[in-house]
Design a protein that fits this description.
778 residues, alpha+beta, Rossmann fold, Topoisomerase I, domain 3, Topoisomerase I, domain 4, six-stranded antiparallel beta barrel, four-stranded parallel beta sheet, 20 helices, 30 strands, 34% helix, globular
Length: 778
């Protein structure tokens, strides 16, 4: 083979994948990467006058242009393709990969009917060799399904987002699949707001058998509605005798879960490792490209014959014959577009797969769950004993659990045991202590990333390859956020009976933690209500799921792409045309909380350009402008109270004066709470601007001055200074900065030198397009 010719050119998506594959194919193959997608649908600003990126009047003809950052890559691929005798397109095996292969055919002038298309669900020598031996042609049905999805999403973005900008305060954009995800969060939050809390008293007891030290923990099967009732019950137990009644023992089997799919991988990684969906998929991609796991986008729970044989050998060798059990799981998803194999290790005996600690943790989770799926059931012996009360019909129940055979739990699970001492019917027990604790009904649980993925899968919203993007997008756009709240303290009553004495205590417990949960923002809630009222189909779960099914039908050649797009677009576009008549004020999401007791002005909570805000006064009177205040960080637009809002209008607050008589003002700004002295702003970090004292403020201000003094090397007046900065000493005049060259002594810089350095320094870049924040009223 001459230096100018290439016998076999293989094109994959990622450079990392290219390196791994090149190790297996030998000198007759050159492997290059497209570095992901190479073409996309252009935005309007990139089109010539009169051009349409998607021509809805001509069967949705679509323009694709090479991405600006891919032009060099395409040039290199074109040069290599001209030299190649045979070209193999080895992009990923899903619709996105098929579409990339089609785009490569387009830009490299390859015949889609004859170009070799190869796919493999794992990057191993055997899988790649088998793919080379069995090439196929490009699957244009898969390509059409991907095009249809992309066109739908772009049409919604092109046409609906401008409506959102004009009509929804704080609205940025709307997505075809992201919007139903936001709706799920909004509906859950409203369930929680509407939840009516209640409490009951649960009674637990600790008993001992005569002459034994073992504690028997038991729970009363009856709850009590209030404190007086449960107190009377405890009082009656001072004269009671406790006897072991019926004892039941049974052996139950616990079966392992199926191997991982994209959805269950994201759920498990979130609940067990605390990983976001996006992080999970990024790490899984690394493991796949390194040849450690099979393809990470799949709906399938199937395992191939070769993998099953390998696991069988490994389990028998490591744990013994009795731990192995062949299991075949059936894929539930009827629209499984990537149904090849579940996510599994390419070599189940390999324990270490990455130097990256997070990737290794994810690999370990995948490996353990895969192996566990082919292991025997665990056998658990459960014992239940009732404890009769001599003067009551109610009974306590004690439960014990012993693992007789751990089975798959050895690989994936926990062997928790709650042992009961040996008991027999009619044994008399002594109450060590009996406790009645107030227990509150739990409101519906907020979604985590993992549980949101599970819910979207149940409803048919999105597909495995899109879950991480959906969850990431709604957070990036500011429609949802990860909670960080530890919850609020509440009082719970606890009564404890020891012998004949009943002690009452009020204990503190946390409730309503939002840490790690997904919460809809006020902007997300207002947008959801707008779409729900005016573009129902966009947020309708059934409609969104139907679209996904229709995309699957296109991929299976059961539905025409243009018909599907037409059926969606025509009624959607009619709604867009009618949107000009929507009154913006009707979707503002404003709430009048009440009136300020001092001025009588209405207090309004509403969405502003940059999120929720508070307003005092309507602004109808030209001579009396409304006042504005920051929104409390812990409050929500739907639930904020008048009392909370009035507190915010106490800012800015005059705290006192400095030693030299300057006024100290406390307030909350863009970067949190601060105090201001003249033109100097000092962050008070975790301090409270409502309660900070003059003494505390003076101390913080003094520390700030001391820090500035340490930073100040020389002051020549008129703002010209030599300062010690984060990246070393520099000269500034307040407008321009000039770095002092390494090796020069900053203490010996003269005023003339400083002026010359500033004169020659480049101007600071102008800030553009940044956020503007309303300050609290002064």
């Amino acid at each position: 083979m001459s230096e100018k010719s290439i016998k076999n050119l293989v094109i994959v998506e990622s450079p990392a994948k290219a390196k791994t594959i090149e190790k297996y194919l030998g000198k007759d193959f050159k492997v290059m990467s497209s570095v992901g997608h190479i073409r996309s649908i252009p935005t309007n600003k990139d089109l010539k006058k009169g051009q349409k990126a998607i021509d809805t009047d001509r069967d949705f003809e679509t323009i694709y242009t090479v991405d600006s950052d891919k032009k060099k890559t395409i040039t290199e691929l074109r040069v290599a393709a001209k030299k190649a005798n045979i070209i193999w397109l080895a992009t990923d095996e899903d619709r996105e990969g098929e579409a990339i292969a089609w785009h490569l055919c387009e830009v490299l002038n390859l015949d889609t009917a004859t170009t070799n298309r190869i796919v493999f669900h794992e990057i191993t020598k055997s899988a790649i060799t088998e793919a080379i031996e069995k090439p196929r042609n490009l699957d244009m049905n898969l390509v059409k399904a991907q095009q249809a999805r992309q066109i739908l999403d772009r049409l919604v973005g092109f046409e609906l987002s401008p409506v959102v900008w004009r009509k929804v305060p704080g609205g940025k954009s709307a997505g075809r699949v992201q919007s139903p995800a936001v709706k799920l969060l909004v509906e859950k939050e409203r369930e929680i707001i509407e939840f009516e809390g209640s409490s009951t008293f649960k009674v637990t007891g600790e008993f001992i058998k005569s002459g034994k030290k073992d504690i028997i923990k038991a729970t009363l099967q009856t709850d009590f509605p209030d404190e007086p009732t449960v107190h009377d019950f405890l009082e009656s137990l001072t004269e009671a005798k406790f006897t072991v009644g019926n004892i039941e023992t049974n052996v139950a089997k616990r079966n392992p879960l199926p191997p991982l799919t994209t959805s269950t991988l994201q759920q498990d990684a979130n609940s067990r490792l605390g990983m976001s969906a996006r992080t999970t998929m990024s790490l899984a991609q690394q493991l796949y490209q390194a040849g450690m796991i099979t393809y990470m986008r799949t709906d399938s729970v199937n395992l191939g014959g070769q993998a099953l044989a390998q696991m069988s050998t490994y389990i028998k060798k490591e744990f013994g014959e009795k731990y192995h059990q062949i299991r075949k799981f059936k894929t539930k998803s009827s629209g499984a577009q990537e149904a090849h194999e579940a996510i599994r290790p390419t070599d189940c005996s390999r324990e270490i797969a990455s130097d990256d600690a997070r990737a290794q943790k994810l690999y370990d989770l995948i490996r353990r769950r895969t192996l566990a799926s082919q292991m025997a059931s665990a056998e658990i012996e459960r014992t239940t004993a009732t404890i009769a009360i001599s003067n009551h019909d109610e009974a306590f129940v004690a439960k014990g659990e012993v693992v007789l055979f751990d089975g798959f739990l050895k690989m994936y699970g926990t062997n928790k045991e709650e042992l009961l001492p040996i008991l027999k019917s009619s044994d008399e027990l002594t109450a060590n202590q009996i406790t009645a604790k107030e227990t509150f009904a739990r409101p519906p649980a907020r979604y985590t990333e993992g549980s949101l993925v599970k819910k979207m899968e149940e409803l048919g919203i999105g597909r495995p390859s899109t879950y991480a993007t959906i969850i990431g997008t709604i957070q990036t756009r500011g429609y949802a956020e990860k909670g960080i709240g530890e919850g609020e303290e509440r009082d719970a009553i606890e009564l404890k009976l020891v012998k004949t004495n009943i002690a009452r205590d009020v204990i503190k417990e946390k409730t309503g933690s939002t840490k790690g949960k997904l919460l809809p923002t006020s902007s997300g809630t207002v947008l959801n209500d707008f779409l729900n009222n005016h573009f129902t189909n966009i947020v309708d779960y059934g409609f969104t799921a139907r679209i996904e099914n229709e995309l699957d039908e296109i991929a299976e050649s059961k539905l025409d792409k243009v018909k599907m797009l037409r059926d969606f677009y025509d009624p959607f576009h009619e709604l867009i045309d009618g949107a000009k008549d929507i009154d913006r004020s009707s979707v503002a999401g404003a709430r009048t909380l009440g009136n300020d007791p001092k001025t009588g002005e209405p207090i309004i909570a509403r969405i502003g350009r940059f999120g929720p805000m508070l307003q005092m006064g309507e602004g109808d009177d030209k001579d009396k402008k409304p006042r504005f205040a920051n929104f409390p960080s812990s409050a929500r637009l739907e639930t904020i109270t008048l009392e909370q809002a009035l507190t915010m209008f106490q800012l800015p607050r005059t705290v006192g004066k400095t030693d030299d008589g300057q006024e100290i003002i406390a307030n909350i700004g863009r970067f949190g709470p601060y105090i201001k002295i003249a033109t100097t702003f000092v962050s008070i970090k975790d301090g409270d601007p409502f309660t900070i004292t003059e003494e505390e403020s003076r101390k913080i201000y003094a520390e700030k001055l001391a820090a500035d003094e340490a930073k100040n090397i020389a002051d020549f007046g008129d703002g010209l200074k030599v300062l010690n900065g984060r990246f070393g000493p520099y000269v500034t005049d307040g407008k321009k900065n000039a770095k002092i060259p390494k090796g020069d002594d900053p203490t010996k810089i003269t005023a003339e030198q400083a002026k010359e350095m500033i004169k020659n320094a480049p101007d600071k870049p102008k800030r553009g397009g940044g956020r503007r924040y309303k300050k609290s009223a002064k």
